[in-house]
Fold this sequence. Notes:
alpha/beta, binds 2-acetamido-2-deoxy-beta-D-glucopyranose, two-stranded antiparallel ribbon, 519 residues, 16 helices, eight-stranded mixed sheet, 12 strands, 35% helix
Amino acid sequence: MFWWKQILIEINLIVLIAAKYPEYNEGYSLSVPVDHFAYTISDTFKIRYFYNLTFYKPNGPIFFYPGNEGSLEVFAENTGIIWDLAPKFNAAVIFIEHRYWGKSLPYSDESFTALSRIGHMTSIQTIADFAIILPWFKQIYNISQDSKIIAIGGSYGGMLAAWMKLKYPTLIHGVWASSAPVVWFNGGGTPLGGYGSRVQKAFKFFGCNNSTILFDGFNAISNLGKDDQGRQKLTNIFNINPKTPLNSENDVKKLLTFVQTAIENLAMTNYPYPTSFLTSLPAWPVKVACSFILQSPANPSTEELATLMKNISKIYFATNLTCLDAMICGNPENPKLADVWDFQKCTEIIIELCPMGPPNDFFPMLCNDRESFLKTRKQFCSNNYKHIGWTDNLMRENAIQETYGWDFTQTSNIIFTDGTIDPWGAGGVTNNTPGIMDGQKRQIFNFIIEGSAHHLDLRQPSSCDPENIKNIRYQIVQILKTWIDPSLPPYSSTALPPFAFPNVTDCEYLYNQYPWNQK
Ligand SMILES: *[C@@H]1O[C@H](CO)[C@@H](O)[C@H](O)[C@H]1NC(C)=O
Ligand SMILES: *[C@@H]1O[C@H](CO)[C@@H](O)[C@H](O)[C@H]1NC(C)=O
Ligand SMILES: *[C@@H]1O[C@H](CO)[C@@H](O)[C@H](O)[C@H]1NC(C)=O
Ligand SMILES: *[C@@H]1O[C@H](CO)[C@@H](O)[C@H](O)[C@H]1NC(C)=O
Ligand SMILES: *[C@@H]1O[C@H](CO)[C@@H](O)[C@H](O)[C@H]1NC(C)=O
Ligand SMILES: *[C@@H]1O[C@H](CO)[C@@H](O)[C@H](O)[C@H]1NC(C)=O
Ligand SMILES: *[C@@H]1O[C@H](CO)[C@@H](O)[C@H](O)[C@H]1NC(C)=O
């Protein structure tokens, strides 16, 4: 689920590839209650934040990133657009860490070991933390109390930003929620197979005319995995780490998950330029995967298919040895941390998705309706959290609907952006989401970016960004200007240019070069 946990059941929302490191100071907040909503405990803790006031001028806004599921550095380093635009807007910048992540642990290492402690890991507690810290931040750094707060977040961070606008309308002035699957819940209208079909779409879009071969590849791995001889072949082909041997068909399932994870992550991080941080990826990694597919023989043998799957997986997981459980062979920074997003998946964040197999996608089918999805998820949660007291009743299938919902008819100033080849894009708002179709009169925008991967728009601008990415950033700057300066007329969005490959190959990050040489 996280970069230090190589292998997971299902892909998580964060992306981990950085540009130049931003510069900021680190601070710890005032004490906040572990439980904001009841009076049975009086425990408090402090939350970490990063800030930079270098560009702030009186009347400037605050660009606030609501930390999502990871250590705060990951978000500070992968949201270049905030640092890039801060000088232009005379903005103060603050990133606030999500509770139970990084250095914001209510009960240090013991935060995860009992339901009475980890049970305070919820989105609503988290945004309540943010809502206390933001006014305090203004006060202690002498930022005007009138300074407008613009929440900018990607993925789950984008969901938190949008939810804050609904819950704290007078605190949050505007939101840029990128790749935030806010309707991917029961009743939101996103198809169960949406994730897998987007991955398949990404492979088609970027050059694999016929990706059926990937389904054949998964079958080849399963078939080889049925006996010892085949498992030995797989061990050789994938160079399996001896610490996670392939001894049984169950172990082979972990290998299937490993390959699935790699393929999903290639689609999610299919960025136009090479990215290198914790995992090193070429430009357009899906194109690279497709080049392997296009080169494969006409009637590949089972072993050739397995080799193809290995070649593709290694684009994402570039390590020599294939580890099937990073908790066993990796050096996880803090193994306990890796479980907290999973805990949210087992309590409130019930994003309903499943690989379903052809024609929806090229993955082995895991479930095919809501009931089988819930059954699979509950089994996962029981395996992981029964020992700390998790029961089926703690999985509240409608928690997000009941806590926030997705009715945007009574709110304003929200920009949603989604990429057409981002697997998470399937769960973004649509014209059927209440308040979206007629949203512009309340300055609610829904931009769909052709060919764009997971929150590409929030990254540091690059000379290799397609025109539609440059254009969306440009339009968003115009929108932000009108939110901050009420004397300006409201903004009307225009259609984004179609996707086109940039004809530049020598990619470089562009710092402070708004409007980025748009055509
Ligand atoms: C804020 O960011 C600017 C630009 O990266 C940098 O010059 C400055 O030193 C930073 N301030 C702090 C306090 O890190
Ligand atoms: C804020 O203003 C007060 C009073 O003018 C001053 O004492 C304090 O040092 C300032 N704090 C910061 C962080 O600039
Ligand atoms: C992919 O399909 C298109 C249209 O069906 C065809 O024109 C093109 O030649 C195909 N490309 C490859 C590499 O097979
Ligand atoms: C796609 O490839 C598979 C084999 O991987 C083949 O059986 C199928 O006929 C191909 N489909 C098309 C439309 O070429
Ligand atoms: C896998 O990669 C190796 C090394 O790059 C290459 O020689 C081989 O042809 C590839 N095989 C398949 C099936 O993609
Ligand atoms: C990768 O593993 C193989 C087989 O164990 C070994 O021969 C090779 O030297 C390793 N390559 C690297 C770069 O470590
Ligand atoms: C890229 O396209 C522009 C025109 O759109 C052209 O002037 C330029 O020469 C092209 N560059 C390359 C490297 O092809």
